[in-house]
Write a structure and sequence with these properties.
This protein has 403 residues and is α/β, with parallel strands linked by helices. It contains 15 helices and 13 strands. The relative contact order is 0.17. Bound molecules: pyridoxal-5'-phosphate (PLP). Pyridoxal-5'-phosphate binds next to α6.
């Protein structure tokens, strides 16, 4: 018998993933994915950039590069992040192979077997899988419409500390949460910094969606926590090109305190030596030319249009027992169903009717609660949203009736 490492024995394909494989048949309407719209990729810009590469640039693109990233991309990305108010002078930047790699690197840097960490409930499944693969002991804390519930977090930290189990870090997605869609308020961000600084616990701030706001880009609620914390708290900030250019680049980044940077560089060296040079060259040109700003303006409008249609349909068709928050940006709406409702059963019915979404259990760090549904509007046009949501609503109503 194949003798796997203990750390991977516990990794299993979920029932949801098996269900999802049924959901790829032609014609099915998908609110399941967390990917950008296929029709929205900046193909004309990418074609132009590629066509204009010099021979020297192509050689760099085909070669290995430095582990922390190509110098030109580090420079243009620093400029981009600085404009958003991120602390690029006090922190150090590493280009990673998607931001999921940044999360993996941080997990490896901090977690020994059975170390306690704290995440939100619900939480991004990719990060949960990474934390599980390092055998972290995952504790989860609830979210409300303003962000993580501070009193619950405080009680959890104090209870762990009283048992000599000080958490290694807290991991959150405060800006257009996946799957909950929530944008933390400025007030909640501030309370979080104060709480964690008082306990000297690092924060991982995952910001994969921050550029996809439907409102003004200078709303205080969009302030990155890393730039609010100053020296009071170690914040490791992660970001990604996946939702703002395309996940096919496989490029993300981490902006971390200098003490943490050195270890992360060594860990990345062992993972993959360097991230793809080819796509780093493209991403650099995209930023340096300023095209990124025009493109972001275009996709914000389009995602907002899709979100608006989904909101309209949900308002019209969902029963009142289902609670949800209107998204202010990002890709997702999180539908909270009454306790005891099994969203995986609803999903099975919806798939039969031709629509797929992701059921709540997928995002529960405790692998338990299933009374929620994530619907995403990112990769579906307005007409398809208008056809699909009534079908989701009907499947939900049927289950509520039979409960
Ligand atoms: C919250 C969050 N963080 C990180 C990622 C990882 O993105 P990538 O590795 O493509 O940069 C995703 C992808 O869906 C995400 O939703």
């Amino acid at each position: 018998m194949t003798r796997f490492a203990k750390s991977v024995e516990a990794l299993r394909a979920s029932q949801i993933r098996d269900l999802m494989s049924l959901a790829t048949r032609p014609g099915i309407i998908s609110f399941a994915g967390g990917m950008p719209g296929n029709d929205l990729f900046p193909l004309k810009y990418i074609d132009k950039i590629t066509a204009e590469l010099t021979e020297r640039e192509k050689q760099v693109a085909m070669q290995y590069g430095p582990t922390t990233g190509l110098p030109q991309l580090l420079e243009s990305l620093s400029e981009f992040l600085k404009k958003k108010g991120l602390p690029v002078e006090s922190h150090k930047l590493i280009i990673t192979t998607g931001s999921l790699q940044a999360i993996n690197i941080l997990a490896k840097a901090f977690v020994d077997i059975n170390d306690d960490i704290i995440v939100e409930n619900p939480s991004f499944i990719g990060a949960l899988s990474a934390f599980k693969s390092y055998e972290a002991n995952i504790n989860s804390c609830g979210l409300d419409d303003e962000g993580i519930i501070i009193d619950d977090l405080k009680n959890m930290i104090e209870s762990l500390e009283a048992q000599n189990r000080k958490p290694k870090f807290v991991y959150i997605t405060p800006t257009f949460h996946n799957p909950a869609g929530v944008l933390y308020t400025y007030r909640r961000r501030k309370q979080l910094v104060e709480l964690l600084a008082g306990h000297d616990i690092p924060l991982i701030e995952d910001d994969a969606y921050g550029d996809l706001t439907f409102e003004s880009t200078d709303s205080a609620d969009l302030t990155p926590i890393v730039s609010m914390a100053g020296n009071s708290l170690e914040v490791c900030y992660t970001g990604s090109f996946s939702k703002i250019i395309g996940p096919g680049l496989r490029l993300g980044w981490m902006l971390v305190p200098p003490t943490i940077y050195r270890k992360c560089e060594l860990i990345k060296q062992a993972f993959d030596a360097c991230s793809p040079s080819y796509t780093q060259v493209l991403a650099d040109k995209f930023l340096r030319s300023g095209v990124i700003y025009d493109y972001l303006a275009e996709i914000r409008v389009e995602y907002k249009k899709r979100a608006k249609e989904m909101i309209k349909q949900l308002e019209e068709y969902l029963p009142k027992e289902v609670k949800w928050v209107k998204p202010r940006g990002g890709f997702y709406i999180w539908l909270r169903l009454p306790e005891g409702v099994n969203s995986t059963e609803i999903l099975k019915d919806a798939i039969e009717q031709g629509v797929v979404f992701v059921s709540g259990k997928t995002f529960d760090p405790e692998d338990n609660a299933d009374n929620a549904i994530r619907v995403s509007y990112c990769n579906t046009d307005v007409d398809t949203i208008a056809r699909g949501i009534p079908i989701v609503a009907k499947a939900i109503k049927e289950h509520l009736k039979n409960k």
